[in-house]
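Suppose a colleague, Dr. K., hands you the sequence of a protein chain of 99 amino acids and asks what its three-dimensional shape might be. Before reaching for any lab equipment, you can write down a predicted structure in C-alpha cell form. Begin with the sequence itself:
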Amino acid sequence: MRKLQYVFITLAVLCFAVPVFAQTGSAPGLNLIPIGAGLGMGLAAGLCGMGQGRAVASATEALARNPGTRAGIMLFLVLGLAFIESLTLFTMVIVFAKM
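The predicted structure, expressed as C-alpha cells, is then:
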C-alpha cells in the first residue's frame, strides 16, 4: 500500500505541475516530446519483456506437468508472444509518429 501511495502522490504532483506553463503555453526552448517518447518506449519494452518472460515460464511449467500437450501449448505460446511483441511494435510506431 505504501508504494501505491507514493505512485498516486507522484501522479498528483505531475498533474498539478502542468499549470506552470499556462501563461505562454509552453516553456521557451523546452521540448518534452522526446523525453515522453523515450519513457513510453522504455516502459512498453520493459513491461512486454516481463510479460514474455512470464508467458515462457508458464509454458515451460505446463510442459513439465503434461508433456503430451506440447503441440497445443506451443501454438498458444507462439501466438501469445506475437501479440505481446506487437504491443511493443505499436508503441514504437506511435513514438516515431509523434517525433
